[in-house]
Design a protein that fits this description.
29% helix, Acyl_CoA_acyltransferase, Aminopeptidase, protein-N-terminal-alanine acetyltransferase activity, acyltransferase, GNAT_dom, alpha+beta, N-acetyltransferase, 171 residues, seven-stranded mixed beta sheet, single chain
């Protein structure tokens, strides 16, 4: 085996516990800090509705043959610089970081977004102060376009890198 056995599974109601596990000060350091329980519940409902509403898709990241939930990854529609694109984001729980799990999950999520043939581009906007997420973008085949001011969560702007992947290109 060349790396960890990683799979992604579309978001289900039982993933609320995982969402709460990633809602910590350490995990949310680069995106404005933890959310309230009310915000987590609203986010969970949005994730459950992504596919039905055509907004994107959220996944649990599963590791190994036991399929332990070790993180989240997903993409959602947004308007960026006048173009409808997908935006991707991920969280991998601290005990599982640094093992190639996020890169493998990103490859699977990119394949999912590409198979939809809905948008031409997939963007990621990690904070310029988040070297791990920026490295994941590079390793997953994204191209760095520029630094930008990016609003996430709503009402909070952060300095981010705009990474882009062409979904129409042959992998």
């Amino acid at each position: 085996m060349n790396g960890p056995e990683v799979r992604i599974r579309p978001w289900v109601d039982g993933d609320l516990a995982l969402l709460r596990r990633v809602n910590t000060p350490v995990m949310k350091k680069h995106v404005g800090g933890p959310e309230t329980d009310e915000q987590v519940l609203a986010r969970h409902q949005r994730y459950l509705n992504f596919v039905a509403t055509g907004a994107g898709c959220m996944f649990s990241i599963l590791l190994g043959t036991e399929r332990e939930a070790v993180g989240t990854i997903g993409y959602a529609e947004r308007l960026w610089n006048g173009e409808r694109v997908y935006e991707i984001g991920w969280n991998v729980l601290p005990p599982f970081q640094g093992r190639g799990i996020a890169v493998a999950a990103a490859a699977a999520a990119v394949a999912s977004a590409r198979s939809e043939r809905k948008h031409s581009h997939l963007h990621a906007f990690p904070s310029v102060d988040n070297p791990a997420s920026n490295a994941i973008c590079r390793k997953a085949g994204f191209s760095l376009l520029a630094e930008c001011d990016f609003e996430f969560p709503p009402g909070r702007f952060m300095r981010s890198n705009d990474w882009c992947l062409d979904l129409t290109a042959t992998p």
